[in-house]
Structures are given as C-alpha cells and as structure tokens.
Write a structure and sequence with these properties.
Length: 199
Amino acid sequence: MSIRRKFHTRWMVVVSIIVLIALQARIVFSDQPAALAAPTDVLDQYQEGSGYGFWFDDETLRWQEFIPSYRFLSAVDVYISKIGNPGDVIVEIRTVGGVLLAQQTLAESAVPTCGWASVELDGVVVLTPGTKYRIYVHSDTDSLSPDNRYTWRGNTASTYCPTCDTDASGGWPDYDYAFRTYAVILDEVIYLPLVMRDY
C-alpha cells in the first residue's frame, strides 16, 4: 500500500470515530482538558390540574403512571391537601411491575395545607425514556378519621398520556393526579486531542 493510501485510510478511520462520538456528546478540540458543565434541572412530565382528589394513609397507597423523556430523574412535585396531623408523606418511584427505584420521606411540617409538595430525590434515578413508571404516594400514619388526612388532588378530565393509568382508573378513566417530574441534563464535553503523526 502506498504512503498516500495508508494516510488516507487512517484519516478516514479517525473521521469515523469522531462522527460516532459526536452523536453522543459535544466535542471540544483543545490542548487543555475541558471541564464538565454544571447539571441542569428541567421540567419533564406534568399534569397540573388539581381539583378532585383521593385520600391516602399508610395502608391506602395512590399511584400515577408517567413516561419520562429524559434519563435521569431528580425530583417530583405532587399536589396535596392536608387536614390535621396526618404524619409524614412518603413518595416512591417504582416500575410498573412494582420494583422500588427510589423512596423519599417528606416531613409533615414541609407539606403545605394545600399546594405543591416538592420532593428532592437522594441522587438521580436512572430511567429508560419512553418506558412507563409509577409515582406512589402514601403516609406513615393510619388515618382513622377525615380530621387527620392527606388528599392527592388531580384532574377528572385530564389529557395527559391517555395510556397512563392511576389507581383510580377503573372508575375514573380520564383522571390523573397532579404531578411534575424533573430531570437532570448533563452537558457532556469530551476532550479529544488531535495527534498528528508522520507517515
């Protein structure tokens, strides 16, 4: 093989590798390593209608399905009303099959009388975009009367994800709980130095 052909072949290999990497991340050519940018939280899935609701306690669990668009789940908001002293709220992320992926407890004092309760997860939860998951909400205390009770509120005429169910879908097929999910976007930067060689 001639020197010119050998150089051309190796250069094409280099170009092919660069193209493949560029599909996954942003490339920086530099004589200094590039630092990773700070993670960015973005709103992913949401249904913000908050009228009628269903109560929950330590034995009555409520759940809402969602389909993420991003891979790294970082936080969840749920719209809750609170009466009396019903204990702490527990929010879980599970697969449709019931596998627990994350669990976070929100102190009763951090839950508003009526409004959005924000739950920051301990570390990101790795999800598969386009796959259904469930947000579970319950408390750590038995609700013996309506005087001490939580209610997760939602929308009786929701248009969010018609194929996503809730625990109430049997009698309320158009119902979805009020929720928001947040994802972390990692701005990946690859340091790819070019090394010129003589052939």
